[in-house]
Design brief:
rod-shaped; 203 residues; mainly alpha; membrane; single chain; 0% strand; 87% helix; cell membrane; ExbB/TolQ_transport
């Protein structure tokens, strides 16, 4: 009940801040869940790929990655692709890894945008509230706390809400960026290990 009262006191600017907040939590939860699944799947397909290499049953690789998530399948499949030179193979592998990196970072721009813009939205609510205070003073013909208290309250609540939304968005943004970096590093290391094992198995 108290939250609803504060929300109404904050004025119309609370509605875009509410949308920002819902977007932040939606993207953050979806991204954290996605990264957990990515790490789990990447480990599974790494283990299976290593098993195929060690047993030298390379014909099973196409079947293994046929129904694999694309972000995982493409770099793993590139391990087994022939190339006319090591430079060509490395360039192809790097392109596949770049695609995986972009896939992992998809939609986190929303968190960064909210983190940087929410304080300004709250500041706009502050300015709007102060303008309302001056309007009320002009209409009443005199100044006084009782006259401007509602508008000042609206301004302060809008400011606080904008800062709160921005802080939450920034915390999620930094946390998810770190987790993406960790997931990508582990994934690249796994790909490198597979490539080395494959090259050794072919000799």
């Amino acid at each position: 009940m108290e939250l609803m009262h504060l929300f109404k006191q904050g004025g119309f600017i609370m509605y875009p801040l509410l949308i920002f907040s819902v977007a932040v939590w939606t993207v953050a939860i979806q991204k954290i869940w996605f990264l957990m699944n990515f790490n789990k799947q990447a480990k599974y397909f790494y283990d299976e790929g290593m098993r195929i290499i060690q047993s030298k049953r390379f014909n099973e690789m196409e079947w293994l990655y046929k129904n694999c998530p694309e972000l995982i399948a493409k770099p793993h499949s590139a391990v087994f692709e022939d190339a006319s030179s090591s430079e060509e193979w490395e360039a192809r592998m790097q392109r596949r890894l770049n695609e995986t990196s972009m896939g992992l970072k998809k939609n986190i721009w929303i968190l960064g945008t909210v983190a940087s813009s929410a304080p300004f939205v709250g500041l706009f609510g502050t300015v709007w509230g102060i303008m309302g205070s001056f309007k009320e003073i002009g209409a009443a013909g005199k100044a006084g706390f009782a006259i401007v208290s509602a508008s000042i309250s609206e301004a302060l609540i809008a400011t606080a809400a904008g800062i709160l939304v921005a802080v939450v968005a920034l915390l999620f943004y930094n946390y998810i960026l770190v987790k993406i970096g960790e997931s990508l590093a582990m994934f690249k290391n796994g790909i490198g290990d597979l490539a080395e094992s494959f090259n050794s198995a072919k000799k």
